[in-house]
Design a protein that fits this description.
The complex is a heterodimer.
Chain A lengths: L7 H65 L11 E8 L2 E7 L16 E8 L5 E9 L2 E7 L15 E5 L5 E4 L6 H10 L13 E4 L5 E8 L5 E7 H15 L1 H41 L5 H16 L7 H63 L4 H16 L3 E8 L2 E9 L8 E3 L4 H8 L3 E3 L17 E9 L2 E10 L7 H45 L4 H17 L4 H10 L12 H4 L7 H7 L2 H9 L6 H9 L20 H16 L10 H10 L11 H9 L1 H10 L9
Antiparallel strand pairs in A: 1-2, 1-5, 3-4, 4-5, 6-7, 6-10, 8-9, 9-10, 11-12, 11-16, 12-13, 14-15, 15-16
Helix pairs in contact in A: 1-3, 1-4, 3-4, 4-5, 5-6, 6-7, 6-9, 7-9, 9-10, 10-11, 10-16, 10-19, 11-15, 14-15, 15-16, 16-17
Chain B lengths: L2 H21 L3 E10 L6 H19 L5 E10 L2 H7 L4 E6 L3 H14 L3 E3 L13 E2 L7 H10 L5 E5 L5 H13 L7 E4 L4 H6 L1 H5 L4 E5 L2 H14 L5 E3 L8 H5 L6 E5 L4 H4 L4 H8 L6 H21 L4 H10 L2 E4 L2 E4 L11 E6 L2 E9 L4 H4 L1
Parallel strand pairs in B: 1-2, 1-3, 3-4, 4-5, 6-7, 6-8, 8-9, 9-10
Antiparallel strand pairs in B: 10-13, 11-12, 13-14
Helix pairs in contact in B: 2-13, 3-4, 5-6, 13-14
Classes of the chains: A alpha+beta, B alpha/beta.
Chain lengths: 730, 372
């Protein structure tokens, strides 16, 4: 079950609200009873005033009545005579005889004035003051009298701060009292001469705008002689007194409230403020930590520093204990911050080291990759691969792994360097031969060590092969102590000497040097074999009746058809050379069989069919003589499988065998043989393409035949150019 | 913004508003109201006229937030003493209809630099050059004279309270002018020994086409009753001093052809938001509406001047009063003439069952002289 919680702030707020409620209730009740008490006091005073004031006025009236009686009786001087302003004996409503005052005899009085009893009405004296008039019976006569009451006697009745006003039913103020609290109001009412009509029932208190600029509480009730007594009191004084009473009665509660407020203030400004800030900072810190990546120590340090700074910015309050607590937190965070800084520094060092290790590792991997590929190329090459392709692939690998702009390999040829292979250089590099004197490549070869030209523009001996080259690494290539050439790794931006790369390329350069050396050696062997082939051609011509020219023509026929078949120039050269050796196996056939003019016996023919195998045996197993062996072995095989020595069929026959077979048949048809005369080119073409019973088109490869037909004129020209001296035309 | 800040700013705005509101509370303008404690002949009229001014101040105060006119009553019988006893911080004085008193006050108002609103009528009162401004400059005599002429009056006698009052002389002179310059045939003073003088009414009224009364309210009504009893059909013209709350009570049901002159208020004045309703609802209908209108116009002149001057300073207020060209009076918009007085027009009033009532066909016929 979840436990309910409440904050101290809420608790204080509730306590304060409760006390405020108590204070309000207590104050409200106290104010209410104070107001009631005040109003009750006023009301009671009004009753007292009515009695006292009424008595004073009635006494004057009694004096006036006695004076009127005396006047009626003809006694002019009597106590209270001065009160009587006018008196007259009436006849109906007409003045019959004036006893006193400026009443004209004979005039008719208004009925409103001829009433029994005494009333203050609109009769006014010469100063505009309202008079008391009435009709009294004296000795059976109706006597109208006007009394001038002295209201100043009422001034002696002390009012408790309240303003009493006596007014006529029309609101005309006839007397206005004086009190300490209502001096201005009294002056105003006196000047205005009118009393406002009070709303509500008589005797009740109402709030009224006095038009003197303030609000008053007002009560009106009947007085004597038709007068009304109005009691007015400024509302703000009443409220002030009520609030004062409320404050006095609620002082204890207010004191308690103040104490709570004080405690609350201390809590709020001295403790809660700091706790709230600490809580907020803790929350922010939690959010910061939650957002942190565990490996991001810099961010962690920044976060710790930020929080430490913010904790340091916490202001002191007036509560010492809170300040001590805050200072402890500040110290703690500063320690954490320092530790975090040290940890971050350590981590940064570790990261730098890791980075270096990673870089080394990456370079080692690069080196491993380069070496691995070089090794693969080496293996591939050793397994009979193309060394030129191996070189080119190695150059590509170097360029890719080093990020070079271009990589080239130039071979040393006497006093020149010749471009052997290249990659990169935006594909804009063309074959070149440059003298080796005075250039950086020569320097590296002469020194026997790689040369790193960091900026070709500042190295006069540098001869960049491309305008974009800025830096170059020149690695001399040696094999068995002899120079083979130079490897250039070029960069299109200035690059500092990278010994690791130099070290990496050293074995690769050695490998490339070996390849160059091998190629050179092969070229020499090929040249030797070419020489040998020419000599064998001569010997073959001597040994059997096929002339030297026949052997030379076979080579040229094959070159021509190889070109037509789209073979490479190297293949064209090789087939032109090795096709000449196609009958080298005939050296083992006895000359009497070879030169026998008549038909051969089966036994003799079986000897003849042995010459392709013998030829291959003579050539041996050298891989670079594979084409020569193929030609020897298959130049008598036929496309339809009717050839010898193994009866190969279709594509079982290598392409060079297919071409050599067709060339051999064409030249045989064009040449003299002991068993046939030489045929014309057209006849030979006819026999090959249409067949003659012995030779059939199905004996030849479709592609080779197509190349033969397409190149027929060239073949004819070759035949005519290398024609034998003896012609045995049919 | 947090709720706490919102409450704080709301409280701040409220506090500042209260400060500003207090700052803009009406400026209290002390206005001296001079009650002539020596006045006896026209005490009722004078008192009610000044009461009306005070009531009008209350009315304007309840509707204006710029100024609060606060009356300061001064009870003196001597004009110089009245001014001397006036508090030093009063901005203006208002004097009652007593001509002598007002005229004497005016003599010293300029040298003291106190603008005076005088309710007195007649040409004896100086104009704005003496810082005196009046809402009712005319006596009403001219209008009554015109009415008498219209009725074919050729001969008339006058009953007056005394000749010490400049108003009486001016009123009679105006009446003569309205009547075409016909002077009264006989004149008696209605003062001490009323019964003896009433006894002479037969002789005075004999051969007269009309009677002219220049008396305060109750002597005028008594004279009227006696004259009416002696000559029921004769028209009796009375100065506007006859108009009071007790005219009807004293005159009884003999009030036919009892005529006076006054400036009646307009519809707005009598309307639901007008001054008359304000007075009757608050204090009752004790004071006649024509007197209320006179007091209202005096306060209206002050109010308009205060709004124009925007200051309670005496000099500013005097300047503003001198510069008034038109105000919204009890009778509607009224021009202020060169003398600084309201150019109001009097009407013939007749005492009817409901009190003094303007005779519609006889309104607005005043002349330039009437407005002076």
């Amino acid at each position: 079950m979840k436990r309910r919680t409440i904050s101290l702030g809420t608790f204080f707020a509730a306590i304060m609200a409760f006390f405020v409620f108590i204070v309000l209730i207590e104050g409200g009740l106290a104010a209410y009873f104070r107001i009631r008490s005040e109003l009750k006091t006023f009301t009671e005073w009004g009753e007292t005033f009515t009695k006292t004031g009424g008595y004073l006025l009635q006494r004057q009236v009694r004096q006036g009545e006695n004076a009127v009686k005396s006047l009626t009786a003809g006694i002019p001087h009597h106590e209270g005579n001065e009160i009587v302003l006018a008196a007259a004996v009436l006849d109906q409503n007409r003045i019959d005889r004036v006893l006193k005052g400026r009443l004209p005899e004979g005039i008719t009085l208004p009925y409103e004035l001829i009433v029994r009893g005494w009333r203050v009405n609109d009769l006014l004296d010469q100063f505009g003051r309202n008079l008391l008039s009435g009709v009294m019976t004296v000795n059976g006569r109706q006597v109208f009298a006007v009394l001038d009451l002295d209201f100043s006697e009422l001034d002696a009745i002390a009012a408790p701060g309240i303003l009493p006003v006596l007014s006529t039913p029309t609101g005309a103020a006839v007397w206005t009292g004086v009190s300490r609290d209502t001096e201005g109001l009294a002056s105003h009412v006196r000047a205005r001469g009118l009393v406002a009509k009070k709303p509500g029932a008589r005797g009740e208190w109402s709030i009224l705008d006095s038009h003197y600029g303030e609000r008053v509480v007002l009560s009106q009730e009947p007085f004597i002689y038709g007068l009304d007594l109005s009691l007015a009191y400024p509302l703000h004084i009443l409220l002030r007194q009520a609030l004062y009473g409320a404050a006095v009665s609620g002082s204890a509660t207010v004191a308690a409230l103040l104490a709570i407020v004080l405690i609350w203030f201390v809590w709020k400004r001295g403790i809660y403020k700091s706790i709230e800030k600490i809580s907020r900072l803790s929350g922010e810190m939690g959010a910061l930590i939650a957002d942190l990546d565990g490996t991001d120590h810099v961010k962690a340090a920044e976060a710790t520093y930020t929080m430490a700074s913010r904790f340091s910015a916490l202001e002191d309050t007036f509560v010492a204990e809170m300040n001590a607590f805050t200072r402890s937190l500040k110290d703690l965070f500063q320690v954490i911050s320092r530790q975090q800084e040290e940890l971050t520094a350590f981590n940064e060092e570790m990261e730098v080291m890791n980075q270096e290790l990673e870089n080394v590792n990456n370079r080692l991997l690069t080196r491993e990759t380069l070496w691995s590929r070089t090794l693969e190329f080496s293996k591939s090459f050793s397994m009979g691969g193309d060394s030129r392709r191996a070189i080119l692939s190695t150059l590509h690998t170097i360029r890719r792994d080093t990020g070079a702009f271009g990589v080239l390999l130039a071979s040393s040829e006497g006093d020149h360097f010749r471009l052997f292979e290249s990659c990169g250089y935006n594909g804009e590099l063309t074959p070149f031969v440059i003298p080796r004197k005075g250039i950086a490549a020569t320097e590296s070869i002469d020194s026997g060590a790689p040369l790193w030209v960091e900026d070709v523009r500042r190295y006069p001996a540098a001869r960049p092969v491309h305008p974009d080259v800025r830096s170059q690494l020149l690695v001399p290539l040696f094999q068995s102590g002899e120079e083979e050439g130079v490897l250039e790794v070029a960069f299109d931006s200035v690059a500092a000497t990278d010994y690791f790369l130099i070290e990496t390329l050293a074995p690769v350069a050695s490998y490339l040097g070996g390849l160059i050396h091998g190629l050179k050696m092969r070229r020499e062997i090929e040249a030797s074999y070419s020489y040998l082939a020419e000599k064998l051609q001569f010997v073959t011509g001597i040994y059997h009746d096929e002339t030297e020219n026949h052997i030379a023509r076979i080579g040229e026929y094959c070159r021509s058809m190889a070109e037509e078949l789209g073979r490479s120039r190297e293949e064209q050269e090789k087939i032109a050379l090795f096709a000449r050796l196609h009958d080298i196996g005939k050296l083992k056939i006895p000359r009497n069989i070879l030169s026998k003019p008549g038909p051969l016996t089966a036994e003799e023919f079986s000897v003849i069919k042995g010459h392709p195998g013998w030829g291959a045996s003579i050539l041996g197993d050298a891989s670079w003589l594979a084409m020569a062996r193929h030609i020897c072995l298959t130049h008598h095989e036929k496309w339809d499988g009717t050839g010898y020595p193994r009866g190969l069929k279709g594509d079982e026959i290598p392409w060079e065998g297919q071409v050599a077979a067709l060339a051999d048949v064409y030249d045989a048809l064009r040449s003299y043989r002991s068993y046939k005369p030489p045929f014309s080119h057209e006849r030979a073409m006819e026999i090959i393409t249409a067949g003659d019973g012995r030779v059939k088109p199905t004996h030849f490869s479709r592609h080779a035949l197509a190349a033969f037909i397409k190149n027929a004129d060239t073949l004819a020209d070759i035949f005519e150019t290398l024609k034998d001296n003896e012609h045995h035309l049919l | 913004m947090t709720v706490r800040r919102l409450i704080f700013f709301a409280a701040l705005v409220l506090f500042v508003s209260l400060i500003l509101w207090r700052g803009r509370s009406a400026e209290i303008v002390q206005i001296g109201v001079l009650f002539d404690s020596g006045e006896t002949s026209e005490a009722v009229i004078s008192k009610q006229a000044l009461q009306s001014v005070i009531l009008a101040m209350e009315y304007f105060n309840s509707r204006s937030s710029s100024f609060e006119m606060r009356p300061v009553p001064i009870y003196q019988s001597d004009p110089v003493s009245a001014v001397d006893h006036a508090p030093s911080d009063i901005s203006a004085l208002i004097t009652g209809p007593g001509v002598t008193f007002s005229a004497n006050i005016a003599k010293i108002s300029k040298e003291r630099g106190i603008p005076v609103i005088s309710l007195a009528a007649g040409s004896l009162i100086p104009g704005k050059e003496s810082l005196v401004f009046r809402p009712r400059p005319g006596t009403g005599g001219f209008v009554l004279g015109r009415e008498a002429a219209r009725r074919g009056v050729k001969t008339y006698s006058v009953i007056v309270s005394g000749f010490d009052s400049g108003y009486v002389q001016e009123f009679i002179r105006d009446f003569e002018a309205g009547l075409g310059g016909v002077p009264p045939r006989r004149t008696i003073v209605f003062g001490e020994g009323l019964e003896k003088q009433i006894a002479h009414f037969d002789r005075i009224i004999s051969g007269m086409d009309a009677m002219l009364l220049a008396l305060p309210d109750w002597p005028a009504v008594i004279a009227f009753r006696e004259l009416r009893l002696k000559s029921p059909g004769i028209p009796i013209f009375a100065s506007n001093r006859v108009i009071s709350h007790r005219s009807l009570m004293l005159a009884g049901n003999l009030g036919k052809d009892f005529l006076s002159a006054a400036v009646p208020p307009g519809k707005k004045f009598l309307g639901s938001d007008g001054f008359y309703k304000f007075v009757t609802e608050t204090y009752g209908d004790h004071i006649p509406v024509c007197i209320l209108a006179m007091g209202y116009d005096g306060a209206a002149m002050l109010s308009a001047a205060l709004e124009a001057a925007k200051s309670a300073d005496r000099a500013s207020l005097a300047g503003a009063l001198s510069g008034l060209e038109k105000i919204e009076s009890s009778a509607g918009p009224v021009l202020v003439n060169d003398r600084g007085d309201l150019a109001v027009k009097s009407c013939v009033m007749s005492l009817e069952a409901g009190g003094w009532t303007p005779v519609k066909e006889l309104c607005g016929q005043g002349t330039g002289r009437e407005n002076q």
